[in-house]
Design a protein that fits this description.
The complex is a heterodimer of chains A (505) and B (399). Chain A contains 17 helices and twelve strands. Chain A is α+β, with helices and mostly antiparallel strands and 505 residues long. Chain B contains 14 helices and 13 strands. In chain B, the strands form two sheets. In chain B, strands 1, 2, 3, 4, 5, 6, 7, 8 and 9 form a nine-stranded mixed sheet that branches. A four-stranded mixed sheet of chain B has the order 10-11-12-13. Classes of the chains: A alpha+beta (505), B alpha/beta (399). Chains A and B meet through α11 and α15 of A and α1, β1 and α2 of B.
């Protein structure tokens, strides 16, 4: 697509304009160019151009065309200097109308679902917002469901998504900036933040990184995520994504920036911290004590998901003396006749589980049940009965798998899942020593990570005592006085202390 | 940069390949030894190892035909040598970390066990938390070859649990671990004691070594933990009776629970359960004469009334208390007297008590403590408090 050609101004001849539009789109059949006449005596040729399926064609024909035809009854259109303006001011009862004078903007408008009005004899047209396409509607988010809390989830439409966020925060300081990214897809990106709370530095960084993107397509927010993240060589996500408007609203109120991408229900939140991935929006809707217990359980589960197989390998192959005698004899009796070393056994089972999990996601719903039956039988029973694996290993693999799904953020769960394989290798080579070294390396790596300049492990490291109120613990709402330290550095006070104290009494 | 990255990846993967040659041992490559028996055989040591057969332990996979444990015996100039030689009889390497008991034969115990302890404490695999026992009148090997009750089919476990249980509720045994034993041998002022273990029933037949032994309602041969063995340094010098063993445990403050009887005023007997004891020992030297005060406080419940007595009266209780005090005092003095006159070995730690209170005097006393020990004057003071009378006040009326 030569840009210079596209920048061509519109011609003043309607026929030539329409011809060029059709040629450029290769006579695509979903493009509609409806020519008609305006005026009773001195008719002016006009055309409405829109894409079928993206524009509200019924509305275009009924409301728009009828109104346009009535126009000359009140005003002499051909005599006017600026008939387009006249039409805009008097005839068209539609909110968003913009002038267009070049083909580039015209194509963008038409292909985005707008309707373009062209008049013969004028090298200008009007872009009339008449977008209406079929979309999925607001459904409960499938990836982050809650028991208590709002059940609406984002959709594929950018406008719907921004509306869902606005419905939560009705403040004039909630600002939305738009960008078009992707040379071919020309995807609309919305950057949302609360002016006065957001850190200007982070916002500037977000803008500059977004502006540097030069790609032909953005089909999902994952594209953006990978293009703007701080560090690529890490298993950990440094940008958060969510399907939930309430999560985005809460993040905006903490001073974070949301990036909404047209065409996907997953909204990015920047900056993202390690602890954020272990917090669910529900934590704030349940009682504080309950939420705290749940969070602690989540952290325990992370350790199980990361280390259970490797600890099993290390202890059963290197450190037999760590087990109580009765347990050791029990495990030894299970391992009698198992032909593989514990490491091979564990890798085999973990890989089998990963295969089953992936199959569970990919396969058509209709055959889901048969696969899960085969899976349970293969993993759970047949392998044990055939003497390929020991029953204890099945328990270890199951608890690992289940613990992994406790992590509320799916992308963090994947990271943990991937990391357990190197840990198993370390355990099989060096025992607990290897696991310890691996953990130290992991923590060092985490300490080095940044998300848009914010240390990834905040508020663990650097430790911020004040922010511990909402980290592993979730204190009651009356105690959540300030926003996170490093993210929003101004306007940090969320509620007056005095008020909260009264509430305690 | 790229080269370095590839090198790192290769290095990481090579870790996995190296794992085969490390000190890695799969669970099915080790023979878990739960009991060790040490005997003398001529000039050599004879070592018996009780190894678990894990396949038989599991209820599901066990065929019921093989033996749950297997005892192998080998001889050698040193313990380490004998132990390694056992691998000629077993396919797997002996794993000593889970030892529950170590049994010394009476013969080697009389000659001295000091030299064998070095191997056990030096070996990095051996933990020091197992119980050390002496086979009473037997070779240790015999003890390790007996089938035990079906509830605890692994004999080493059975013995260890019996020790633990009787330690809690009967108090005539003592769990002496390796480190306690070594420190008792090495320290001046307290000599070791070890719990004995013996066989009852038809000892000479080999019936105890077959599964038949446990399939019978009344086993042919039964393992029993028995009383305490008195050591002088590392040599066995004799045995205490049941009551004397209990007296020893009272003095050392080892009693967690026990039962004792007192005679009722109008005939018949009444037993008291010990629920809590606290023993204190203070040494002193008066005119060069070492003395030891033993203060024992016991709390008891009424456990069993076999006579006519009105327990609701406070006078009865104080009467019972003073009777119990007398009785316990008798037990303590009995065992002290036996040890002082017969064995002349300071197993009670009187020397230790004197060293703590009067280190200067101890420095001169310790030269010939073994001679002085029999003459130590011991003042025993027992107080008994009866706490609870049980769920009934009057006994069953049989009239």
């Amino acid at each position: 697509m030569g840009k210079s050609e596209q920048q061509l101004p519109l011609s003043s001849e309607l026929v030539r304009n329409i011809q060029r539009i059709k040629e450029t789109l290769g006579n695509s059949t979903d493009l509609v160019a409806r020519e008609f006449l305006i005026g009773s005596e001195e008719c002016v040729k006009a055309a409405l151009i829109y894409t079928d399926g993206l524009a509200d064609s019924r509305n275009v024909l009924e409301a728009l065309m009828l109104k346009l035809r009535e126009a000359p009854l009140k005003q002499d259109l051909s005599a006017s200097d600026d008939p387009l303006r006249l039409l805009k001011d008097y005839s068209i009862s539609i909110g968003e109308i913009n002038p267009v004078s070049d083909f580039d903007s015209l194509f963008f408008a038409v292909l985005s679902g707008d309707t373009v009005l062209l008049l013969d004899g004028h090298a200008e047209g009007l872009i009339i917002d008449q977008r209406a396409w079929e979309d999925r509607g607001i459904k409960e988010p499938s990836s982050q469901s809650v028991i208590r809390g709002p059940k609406d989830g984002f959709t594929e439409t950018l406008r719907t998504n921004t509306a869902l966020i606005r419905r939560k925060i009705r403040d004039p300081n909630l600002w939305l900036e738009s960008k078009i990214i992707g040379r071919v897809t020309r995807t609309e990106i919305g950057v949302m933040y609360i002016k006065g709370i957001v850190s200007e530095d982070i916002l500037k960084e977000v803008h500059s990184r977004l502006d540097k993107i030069d790609t032909d397509s953005i089909l999902e927010s994952g594209y953006i995520e990978e293009l703007i993240q701080d560090e690529t060589l890490t298993p950990f996500p440094t940008i958060f994504n969510t399907e939930r408007p309430d999560t985005v609203a809460a993040a905006l109120l903490e001073g974070r920036v949301a990036i909404i991408v047209d065409g996907t229900p997953f909204v990015l939140i920047i900056p993202a911290l390690f602890s954020q991935f272990y917090q669910a929006s529900e934590d704030y809707y349940h009682r504080a004590d309950f939420a705290t217990v749940i969070r602690i359980i989540r952290y325990i589960c992370v350790f199980i998901a990361l280390l259970a197989p490797s600890l099993y390998i290390a202890i059963t192959t290197f450190h037999h003396e760590l087990l109580p005698t009765a347990l050791l004899i029990g495990l030894a009796s299970q391992r009698e006749g198992v032909p593989f070393p514990a490491f091979v056994e564990a890798v085999m089972m973990e890989v089998t589980f990963e295969i089953l999990r992936e199959a569970g996601v990919r396969m058509p719903r209709a055959i889901g049940q048969s696969v899960s039956i085969v899976g349970t039988l293969v993993i759970g029973q047949a392998a044990v009965e055939a003497g390929l694996v020991s029953p204890a290993m099945v328990i270890v693999v199951s608890i690992t798998a289940i613990s992994n799904f406790v992590v509320p953020a799916f992308n963090m769960a994947i990271s943990i899942r991937m990391l357990r394989f190197p840990f198993m290798g370390l355990a099989a080579s060096f025992g607990l020593f290897g696991i310890t070294v691996g953990l130290i390396a992991l923590v060092l790596h985490l300490c080095g990570l940044r998300s848009f300049g914010i240390p990834y492990l905040t508020p663990f490291a650097p430790i911020i005592i004040e922010d511990q109120k909402d980290n592993v613990f979730r204190l009651p709402h009356w105690a959540l006085l300030s926003r996170p330290h490093l993210i929003s550095q101004k306007n940090r006070i969320r509620q007056a202390k005095r008020l909260s104290k009264e509430r305690v009494k | 940069m790229k080269k370095r990255f590839i090198m790192t990846v290769i290095l990481c993967f090579s870790f996995l390949l190296q794992s085969g040659c490390w000190s890695r041992r799969e669970l099915n490559d080790i023979a878990i030894a739960l009991a060790l028996g040490i005997d003398k055989s001529g000039d050599q040591y004879s070592i018996s190892v009780q190894i678990v057969n894990p396949g038989e332990v599991a209820a599901k996979t066990g065929t019921g035909k093989g033996s749950i444990v297997l005892t192998q015996t080998e001889k050698g100039e040193t313990l380490a040598e004998a132990l390694r030689r056992i691998t000629t009889k077993t396919p797997r390497k002996i794993h000593l970390a889970h030892l529950r008991i170590v049994v010394f034969g009476e013969e080697i115990a009389k000659e001295g066990i000091g030299k064998t302890l070095d191997f056990l404490s030096r070996n990095h695999e051996v933990r020091a938390d197992f119980a050390v026992l002496v086979a009473k009148g037997l070779q240790a090997e015999k003890i390790l070859r007996v089938y035990t009750v079906p509830q605890e089919p692994i004999p080493a476990n059975k013995i260890f649990k019996s020790l633990e249980t009787s330690d809690k509720v009967w108090a005539v045994t003592a769990i002496v671990t390796l480190d306690e034993l070594i420190s008792d041998i090495a320290n001046e002022g307290k000599y070791p004691t070890l719990t004995g273990i013996e066989l009852l029933g038809d000892i000479d037949s080999e019936a105890g070594e077959t599964r038949e032994n446990v399939e019978r309602m009344k086993p042919i041969v039964v393992l029993r933990t028995a009383n305490l063995a008195v050591f002088k340094k590392d040599k066995l010098v004799g045995w205490l009776s049941e009551t004397e063993s209990k007296g020893y445990n009272y003095i050392r403050g080892n009693v967690k629970g026990s039962v004792g009887q007192v005679a009722c005023p109008n005939g018949g007997k009444l037993s008291l359960e010990v629920i809590r004891t606290k023993a204190e020992m203070h040494g002193k030297v008066i005119d060069g004469q070492p003395q030891v005060d033993i203060q024992l406080r016991i709390e008891e419940n009424v456990g069993d009334v076999q006579c006519e007595i009105d327990l609701t009266k406070p006078e009865t209780i104080s009467l019972l208390e003073s009777k119990a005090e007398e009785r316990v005092k008798g037990i303590l003095e009995g065992s002290i007297k036996k040890v002082q006159t017969k064995y002349k070995s300071d197993i009670f730690g009187f020397g230790d008590a004197i060293r703590r209170s009067d280190p200067a005097a101890w420095n001169t006393l310790k030269q010939d403590w073994d001679e002085k020990f029999p003459d130590v004057k011991v003042n025993v003071n027992v107080t008994v408090e009866i706490r609870r009378l049980g769920t009934v006040t009057d006994t069953v009326d049989t009239k």
